[in-house]
Amino acid sequence: MANNERENQQQFKYCVAVKFNGSKKAYTFGTNNENLHYGDKVVVETVRGVELGELISDLRDSSLHHSGAALKPILRSATADDIAHDKRNREEAPELMAKCQKCIEQCGLEMYLISAEYTLDRNKVIFSYVADDRVDFRELLKSLAATFRCRIELRQIGPRDKAKIIGGLGCCGMETCCSRFLDDFDIVSINMAKNQLLALNTAKLSGQCGKLMCCLKYEDEAYKQLRAGLPKLNTAVYYNGEKFRITTMNILNNSVRISNKEHAVDLTISDLKKLLPSKKTNEENAENAQN
Fold first, then answer.
1. 10 Å Cβ neighbour count for 221?
2. Which residue among 20, 37, 243, 269 has its CA within the 20 to 30 Å range from the CA of 183?
3. Cα(257)–Cα(249) distance, rounded to whole angstroms?
4. Residue 41: band (very low, low, confident or very high) from pLDDT cuts 50, 70, 90
5. Is the pLDDT confidence value at 287 over 60?
6. For 183-264, where are the alpha helices, taking DSSP H only?
7. CB 269 within 8 A of CB 256
8. Is 226 helix (H, G, I), strand (E, B) or coil?
């Protein structure tokens, strides 16, 4: 066991999962308060500052925390004043956005403001933005500090984070996965679309963020297993003594179409596997075709 894990266990008897407003991700904090329960509001100190969170788990023994990261403490149970301050901070977010946007325009910067929020104690304002290139915001920081008279944090986020914050409906008609339940973003590659035999149309395969849709990842492993041992599209096969090429394949409905200039034949996946020759048979068929 690592030294920092032992120190955490000695410092805190319990650990608990905490979720923050507008986020689906849970973070683990330490506490010795035995009177905390699921659903309680608490005040914690994070890397961003002091924030209000909600417990989404009951107390667990701190020995169950094995991430290796140091546990930050729960400062206290939230009071009525804490909850009121948090509500006021969120109500003032649009005003923060408007003032920051005005400063951005005055500085002539090419950046798109996404969100603005106070920490609970109002010691810091955090602005999130999207930009195509690096932004020199030194003058903007001076302007914002003079306007709000507190610490300023400018946080550049990517297009996927932007979509997660803004939300919306996906092509399936449901709320986007990133804003509904995803905690972290997995790597999504075009090979996943190829594994599912989808048409490589970038516009149709991309989500609101402009990147490949996260849902391509969900069934990728299942398609890899189902396609194991099967040939690629356009592979040549011999059927009833004629040469065909595989033109379409649908793993889910167990269908394959092979065709040549004269014929098109529909087969099942099992039928196709029977047509797949050994290397020796391939060589013999190629030789016969030449003769």
1. 11
2. 37
3. 6
4. very high
5. no
6. 190-195, 202-205, 220-226
7. yes
8. helix
Q: Say how many residues make up the chain.
A: 291
Burial group, residue 39, by CB count within 10 angstroms (0-12, 13-18, 19+): exposed
| % of the chain beyond a pLDDT of 70 | 89
Q: Domains in the chain and their CATH numbers?
A: 3-87 (no CATH), 92-157 (3.30.300), 163-224 (no CATH), 236-290 (no CATH)
Q: How far is CA 230 from the centre of its chain?
A: 31
Pairing relation of β-strands 124-130 and 41-46? Answer: unpaired
C-alpha torsion angle, residues 202, 208, 214, 220 (rounded to 10): -30
Q: Return the SS3 of 240.
A: coil
- Tokens 């944090």 locate to 153
| Structure tokens given for 240 | 């009833």
Residue 83 host element (H or E): helix 80-91
Going by C-beta distance under 8 Å and a sequence separation of 6 or more, which residues neighbour residue 201? none
> What confidence tens digit (pLDDT) does each residue in 187-222 have?
888 988 888 888 888 888 888 888 889 888 988 888
Whether 111 and 131 have beta carbons less than 8 Å apart is answered as: yes
Contact (Cβ atoms closer than 8 angstroms) between residue 216 and residue 205: yes
Strand locations in the chain (E) = 14-20, 26-31, 41-46, 49-55, 60-61, 72-77, 112-118, 124-130, 151-156, 236-239, 242-250, 255-259, 264-267
Q: Dihedral sign, CA of 12, 43, 176, 97?
A: negative
In this structure, what token pair is assigned to residue 264?
């098109």
CA dist 287 and 120 (Å) reads 78
Question: Rounded to whole angstroms, how far apart are CA atoms 29 and 44?
Answer: 8
240: left (phi over 0), alpha (psi -120 to 50) or beta: left
Provide the greatest CA pair distance for the chain.
91
